[in-house]
Design goal:
It is a single chain. The chain is mainly alpha-helical and 179 residues long. The protein is built from 9 helices and 2 strands; from the N terminus they run αββαααααααα. α3 packs across α5, α3 packs parallel to α6 and α6 crosses α8. The longest helix has 19 residues.
Length: 179
């Protein structure tokens, strides 16, 4: 789940089945009842109708948690990260970062670092389009060491400078699940 809309869909599907949840977060739910096979199948079908998936594989669940932590950090947090991201991720998911990194690379086919960069650049594009912040503010918000570093990374990923991108009004943002 990568948005509040996804969380609403999950809550609706749980209510349809008469299930009571303790919490619904990005990528995980905690319900009070034990799911029967029939309820599990109905939930799976209900979620699929909305483009969501019920996951059982522990490795796949962990990969989704990694993605959700990154997406939440990059797209939904306005405070710069105060610690090293690898430490933050390891602490948040209660796993060694090397294990998380190796698993992510093996399953997803890209590194956590490249996944973060792709999302940071997508966020930069979003902030440029909104036009409320200048590049210095954007670089600070997304924890870049400098505007030059942001600009270099932006050009490497998009092929454009941030200022050239800003001039291109027709360029659309990518949906988060396609980044």
């Amino acid at each position: 789940m990568v948005s509040n809309r996804c969380k609403m869909v999950v809550k609706t599907e749980l209510k349809k089945l008469g299930l009571h949840y303790v919490m619904v977060n990005l990528g995980e739910i905690d319900i009070l009842e034990e799911l029967s096979k029939s309820q599990r199948e109905q939930l799976k079908i209900g979620l699929q109708k909305s483009g969501l998936e019920l996951m059982d594989d522990k490795r796949a669940i962990l990969i989704e948690k990694i993605k959700n932590v990154i997406i939440e950090m990059v797209h939904y947090t306005d405070a710069p990260l105060k610690v090293n991201f690898s430490n933050f991720l390891a602490e948040k998911l209660q796993h060694d970062y090397t294990y998380l990194s190796n698993l992510f690379s093996e399953v997803v086919g890209t590194t956590i670092e490249h996944f973060i960069i792709a999302h940071k650049i997508e966020r930069v594009k979003e902030l440029i389009v909104y036009g409320e912040l200048n590049l210095t503010e954007i670089s600070y918000l997304l924890n870049y060491s400098s505007v030059a570093h942001l600009s270099t990374q932006f050009k490497k990923v998009t092929g454009l400078t941030p200022s050239h991108f800003k001039k291109m009004k027709r360029k659309r943002l990518s949906p988060l699940d396609e980044v």
